[in-house]
Write a structure and sequence with these properties.
Elements: H1 17-20, H2 26-91, H3 94-106, H4 110-123, E1 127-132, E2 137-140, H5 154-162, E3 167-173, E4 176-187, E5 190-201, H6 203-213, E6 216-221, E7 233-237, H7 241-253, E8 266-270, E9 273-283, E10 289-298, H8 299-350, H9 366-395, E11 413-424, H10 425-429, H11 436-456, E12 460-465, E13 468-473, H12 478-493, E14 498-514, E15 517-523, H13 525-536, E16 541-545, H14 546-558, E17 564-568, E18 571-579, H15 591-594, E19 597-600, E20 603-606, E21 624-626, E22 630-638, E23 642-649, E24 654-661, H16 669-682, E25 693-699, E26 702-708, E27 713-714, H17 715-722, H18 727-746, E28 749-750, E29 759-761, E30 767-769, E31 776-777, H19 800-803, H20 810-826, H21 837-846, H22 861-870, H23 882-891
Helix pairs in contact: 2-8, 3-4, 8-9, 9-18, 11-12, 18-20, 18-23, 20-22
Length: 894
């Protein structure tokens, strides 16, 4: 058959997506992204350099500060040592001591002062003081001392307290700080006085320390209270005047003041520069804290080399950015061009143009991969389009698939029935207090509950008028089922909700039409009698006619229920009542489990009973309700194991395919167990190309399997109508068959009966593999090859090893796929069909299949090789797995 297209159907068109888009092109985005990444890389390198430099500089500064503190302690000790040695040169001079003795005796201190001035100049003291033995100033180079006494001076007190008569250390005086020593002046072991010598710690001394240690230093004196407050006084510093002015305010703004710098070094901002500062307490000769010495190292100077490195990196990075910009521009142009062509192809495909070639699939990069994938997608879309056009054309010649689903009109007849009248008294009483919509909502809820109970007893609601309804029960044991329904309604309805009447007799039923509205009609004396009893029925009771009581008396006796007899003007015959509460135990009895009947169009007829005592398939007709659940809509097909129906599942309220199995299809319990295994295996498979299996059970004595219902046509029907399929449609179908079969094999399930009858095609062209009715678990690859088994399946599609009775594996399903492929692309089977079964089997075992090209010369050679490989008699020469077969089919394109 030639390829089919539909020229009458124009390709869909829509405005170009590119015309409506706004924004940067892909090339511009690649260019900007590349430049941005380079800028980020260079900026990151500069930032990391700065961070690392800051960390290195910080550690270096801290190390310098620790070194400076140690050096300053050593310098202070050295200065005190020098001062002590120079003081000893004075105290060891007998002439000087003689002057002291004479001065004290003659009260002449001028010559002694001259001596001190001369020694001060020679030894480099800042000032010197001579005390008498009691600590009173005798002579001093500092006029401010005058005749002061040193009784409270820490130097004097320390020398006396220690007993060494020598003291040295820091001395704070008049907002100034000194290195000072006190040594005794004695002759012949007699103490004549004391000599105090001091060096002033001033800016020059601080500058000398800065040169020796490499760090700036500042000496701070505590406030007058001597408690080291937060506003110290600057005594000396190596900082310049501008920075020195900001030092004390900056330290005062720090939490805990300068004391915090004793714990660990901290960063300070002095002027426009960053410093690292660390302090050490100043302890005088008496051990009292008199202030702090603060060491400062410049962070900016330590960071200067790293700043230079960052600048070099910045210049280099700028050059790299410029070069990268040029390269990215050229690369973007090269990369974007094939992508642009792909974009044009996508837009044409979106407009319905699937018949185009995609350039770029020869590339080995991701763009080539994208082009190849898009080419595959276009091919799939072409095949799907051709398949849909083909099915659309073919459907014009096929009969209406749903022609058998229309329910015939209700036959007009007179027959015996049990009528159950139910009056919803509580709803009638609420009519005054409820709004209309509330009344109707309540009515709808009640009808749902009542219809469910009536349906469970195979009854049907014949009519509803206001708060009354009439249910009809026909067939065998109709009165018993009606009584069971009444017991359930009264037992669960609560006191006073319902009044129920049960009567039996002949009724006339049929279709009544007025205008365009056909409906069911029900009339007769039995209906009139029902209406009369409803008028006298009390809520919570059941009224029975005499004839209905006779039919249910045995059931009432079993339940120990005795009715009460009544007479009324309604009828000349007696009727009977039963309290609804006494019927409660009847509500739990399973009458429906023992009934053997089917329900057809609201009427119940005796079911056909087979030799085994079960309902037969012959009794199932359109409108039958099986097991009170499945309403038969139409017959879909028949096979060796039973019949498949289209049915409505009343519990799920959806259409299903119901596969009813014949009793003679089972040899015993083992065969039924195999059917259960079928469901267990098939339910594991969930794939778009596999028909879903829902449930397994029994309905009215017949085993069934409920499956997904699909509106479509089988491949068998399609081939019968059209012969071979077009290449595009055939490839589309072959690939979908392999995908569904691969999903089954992935769950270790063999199909073992692949044939066109078991493939259904939806109107969209989607193929579903169905009927795993003879599936079995997949054997191990090296399982005993000589295992004998029954011949199961359709001989035309069975593999040679199956015909020989050997165990089947995946390759048997692949062989069946080859037969189906042969039939799809040629319209014929690979072996002649004439002769009996044994002749067909012998040909398959001894002869090679026909070549597809002998029937269809235009078949692609690659496709012919695939089919012949599937049909190899030696299964070791076939495909070992469906995935490989599918991969070869994916390469082929129409």
């Amino acid at each position: 058959m030639a390829e089919r297209t539909d020229p009458s159907v124009p390709a869909p068109t829509r405005p170009s997506a590119r015309a409506s888009r706004r924004g940067l092109s892909l090339g511009a985005r690649i260019f900007l992204l590349t430049v941005a990444l380079v800028v980020l890389a260079v900026g990151g390198a500069v930032l990391v350099t700065r961070m690392v430099g800051t960390s290195v500089a910080d550690r270096a500064v801290r190390t310098d500060l620790d070194h400076s503190v140690s050096m300053q302690s050593a310098l202070a000790d050295n200065r005190l040592e020098q001062l002590y040695l120079r003081a000893l040169t004075v105290s060891g001079d007998p002439n000087f001591i003689s002057y002291l003795v004479l001065a004290i005796e003659s009260d002449d201190v001028f010559s002694l002062t001259d001596q001190l001035d001369e020694r001060q100049r020679d030894l480099g003291f800042t000032f010197a003081v001579v005390l008498d033995a009691d600590g009173v100033v005798v002579a001093s180079t500092d006029p401010r001392l005058g005749d002061d006494t040193f009784d409270d001076n820490p130097l004097y007190r320390t020398a006396l307290d220690t007993g060494d008569y020598v003291a040295d250390g820091l001395w704070s005086r008049d907002d100034q700080l000194y290195y000072a020593v006190l040594v005794p002046l004695a002759t012949s072991g007699v103490l004549q006085g004391w000599l105090v010598a001091a060096y002033l710690i001033d800016d020059d001394a601080a500058a000398e320390m800065q040169q020796a240690t490499g760090s700036h230093v500042a000496f701070l004196l505590a406030d007058a209270a001597g408690d080291g407050g937060t506003a110290p006084r600057l005594a000396a510093t190596s900082l310049d005047e501008r920075l020195a002015e900001t030092l004390v305010p900056t330290l005062g703004s720090e939490p805990a003041g300068v004391d915090a710098l004793e714990q660990q070094p901290r960063r300070l901002e002095l002027g426009e520069r960053a410093w690292m500062a660390q302090s050490k307490p100043l302890i005088d000769v008496a051990g009292e804290r008199v202030g702090h010495v603060v060491n400062l190292a410049s962070l900016d100077e330590a960071l200067q080399p790293f700043h230079r490195i960052g600048q070099v990196l910045g210049f280099v990075g700028l050059a790299v950015v410029l070069l990268a910009s040029l390269v990215s521009f050229l690369v973007a142009r090269r990369v974007v061009e094939p992508v642009r062509r792909l974009g044009d192809a996508v837009e044409r495909a979106a407009a319905g143009d699937f018949d185009q070639d995609v350039a770029g699939d020869e590339r080995g990069d991701e763009v080539g991969q994208l082009a190849s994938a898009f080419g595959t997608l276009l091919s799939e879309l072409r095949e799907k389009r051709d398949m849909q056009v083909y099915l659309s054309e073919l459907s014009r010649t096929l009969p209406d698939a749903e022609s058998s689903t229309r329910t015939e009109a209700i036959p007009t007849e007179r027959r015996p029935a049990a009528l159950l009248g139910i009056e919803m008294r509580e709803l009638a009483r609420d009519e005054v207090s409820l709004a209309p919509y509330e009344i109707l909502e309540r009515l709808e809820q009640e009808l749902r509950r009542l219809s469910r109970g009536i349906m469970l007893q195979s009854g049907s609601i014949d009519g509803v008028l206001g708060h009354r309804l009439v249910a009809v029960f026909t067939g065998t044991r109709r009165s018993e089922r009606a009584l069971s329904a009444a017991a359930g309604i009264l037992g669960r309805g609560g006191p006073g909700r319902f009044a129920v009447v049960l009567v039996t007799g002949q009724v006339a039923s049929g279709t009544v039409s007025w205008g365009n509205r056909p409906s069911r009609g029900l009339t007769g004396g039995t209906v009139e009698y029902l209406e009369g009893l409803l008028r006298v029925a009390r809520p919570g009771t059941l009224l029975l006619s005499g004839s209905s009581l006779a039919e249910v008396r045995s059931q009432l006796q079993m339940a120990a229920v005795t009715p009460t007899e009544h007479t009324s003007s309604v009828s000349s015959t007696a009727f009977y009542s039963i309290d609804g509460a006494r019927l409660g135990q009847l509500a739990t009895q399973e009458y429906s489990a023992t009934q053997e009947m089917t329900q057809t169009s609201g009427t119940v007829t005796p079911a056909t009973i087979g030799p085994t005592g079960h309902v037969t398939l012959a009794a199932i007709g359109i409108g039958s309700v099986l097991g009170g659940r499945f309403e038969i809509v139409s017959e879909l097909g028949a096979g060796g194991m039973g019949i498949v129906y289209k049915a409505r599942d009343r519990e799920l309220d959806e259409l299903v395919a119901l596969k009813m199995l014949r009793h003679d299809a089972f040899d015993g319990p083992e065969a039924l167990d195999r059917l259960k295994d079928e469901l267990r295996l098939a339910r594991k498979i969930a794939h778009p190309n596999v028909l879903r299996t829902y449930d397994f059970g029994e309905a009215d004595g017949l085993p069934f399997i409920s499956m997904e219902f699909v509106r479509g046509v089988t491949l068998k029907r399609l081939l019968e109508e059209s012969g071979r399929l077009p290449l595009s449609a055939g490839l589309h179908m072959a690939r979908q068959l392999c995908r569904g079969l691969a999903a089954a094999h992935g769950q270790s399930v063999l199909h073992r009966d692949i044939k066109p009858e078991n493939m259904i095609i939806e109107p969209t062209g989607n193929v579903k593999l169905m009927d795993f009715g003879i599936a079995q678990p997949m054997p191990r690859r090296r399982r005993d090859e000589q295992e004998q088994g029954a011949l199961v399946g359709t001989p035309f599609y069975l593999a040679p090893e199956q015909l020989e009775g050997r165990a089947a594996d995946e390759r048997a399903d692949i062989y069946a796929c080859g037969v189906v492929f042969f039939e799809i692309f040629t319209g014929e089977l690979p072996f002649p069909q004439g002769g009996n079964l044994m002749q067909i089997i012998r040909r398959k075992l001894e002869q090679d299949p026909a070549r597809p090209s002998s029937i269809w010369p235009e078949i692609p050679p690659a496709l012919e090789q695939i089919i012949l490989r599937c049909l190899e008699r030696d299964r070791d020469k076939r495909y070992t797995e469906v995935a490989t077969l599918l991969g070869d089919l994916e390469v082929l394109r129409a």
